[in-house]
């Protein structure tokens, strides 16, 4: 595996081939990327709304009306579109739910470790809720980490992707009644395959130099 090759192969695809669909087998791997992403204290405060047909993509594309028409085709022409949502609270009931899943998955050899993990997760959540006053920000940081995981993983699967913040999140919250479900829309990612004419495929990558962004001690 050559990670540098993948990093250079992947790019923000601006034109998707409407004839090409991600196979079911490949999309299973995409779903694994979403599900297996790391998160602080394994809190997993996310939900994904997925569109894989015209009707679903039309619902997603409602969020490109207004100021964001430049993203409309990038939604409609993609094979699949994923809306990343963040939970709006991680209350005790949710914490108990995550703990029970970890227990079922065999994470806890004894009660003491289980209690410690539960306490640790609640400690972080209450620190962000009550002291730092940035619980929602902390939750959404976990969701962005998942987006990064997806972008690299999709590249490894030779699936093209475009992350989009250029969407009206309030429209998506309404369209999918997210608030009522304890969720809020965060960002969207289109997936599929580039066209031969996508100008952005030929645009060289641009990144700040290593010696500017890294301090090697
Ligand atoms: C969180 C996020 C939001 C973005 N939103 C948009 C968008 O709404 N529309 C778009 O065309 N590109 C969008 N981009 C693409 C960026 O412009 C692109 O990632 C950046 O220029 C780096 O280029 P590369 O992805 O081709 O390496 C977004 C990227 C990220 C990570």
Please describe the biggest sheet, giving its number of strands, its sense, and whether it closes into a barrel.
Answer: 4 strands, antiparallel
CATH topology of the domain at 3-92 and 143-196: NADH Oxidase
Unreliable sequence segments: none
The rough form would be described as: globular
The CATH class of the domain at 3-92 and 143-196 turns out to be Alpha Beta
Count all strands and give the number. Answer: 4
CATH superfamily of the domain at 3-92 and 143-196: NADH Oxidase
Average pLDDT over all residues: 98
- SSE string, helix = H, strand = E? HHEHHEHHHEHEHH
Question: From the coordinates shown, what is the CATH architecture of the domain at 3-92 and 143-196?
Answer: 3-Layer(aba) Sandwich
Strand content: 5-15%
User: How are the strands of the biggest sheet laid out side by side?
Assistant: 1-2-4-3
Give the cofactors and ligands.
Answer: flavin mononucleotide
Instruction: Give the N-terminus to C-terminus distance in angstroms.
Output: 28 Å
Secondary-structure-based class equals alpha+beta
Nearest-angstrom radius of gyration?
19 Å
Number of helices: 10
Helix content bin: 40-55%
């Amino acid at each position: 595996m050559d990670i540098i090759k993948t990093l250079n192969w992947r790019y923000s695809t601006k034109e998707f081939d409407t004839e090409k669909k991600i196979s079911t087998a490949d999309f299973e791997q995409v779903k694994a990327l979403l599900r297996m992403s790391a998160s602080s204290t394994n809190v997993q405060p996310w939900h994904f709304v997925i569109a894989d047909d015209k009707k679903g993509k039309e619902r997603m594309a409602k969020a490109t009306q207004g100021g964001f028409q430049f993203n409309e085709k990038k939604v409609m022409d993609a094979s699949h579109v994923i809306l990343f949502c963040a939970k709006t609270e991680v209350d005790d009931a949710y914490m108990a739910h995550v703990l029970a899943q970890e227990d079922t998955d065999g994470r806890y050899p004894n009660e003491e470790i289980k209690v410690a993990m539960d306490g640790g997760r609640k400690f972080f959540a209450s620190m962000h809720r009550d002291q730092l006053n940035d619980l929602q920000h902390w939750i959404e940081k976990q969701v962005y980490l998942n987006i990064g995981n997806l972008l690299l993983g999709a590249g490894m699967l030779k699936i093209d992707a475009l992350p989009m913040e250029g969407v009206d999140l309030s429209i998506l919250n309404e369209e999918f009644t997210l608030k009522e479900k304890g969720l809020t829309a965060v960002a969207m990612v289109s997936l599929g395959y580039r066209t031969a004419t996508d100008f952005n495929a030929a645009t060289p990558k641009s990144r700040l130099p290593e010696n500017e962004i890294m301090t090697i001690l």
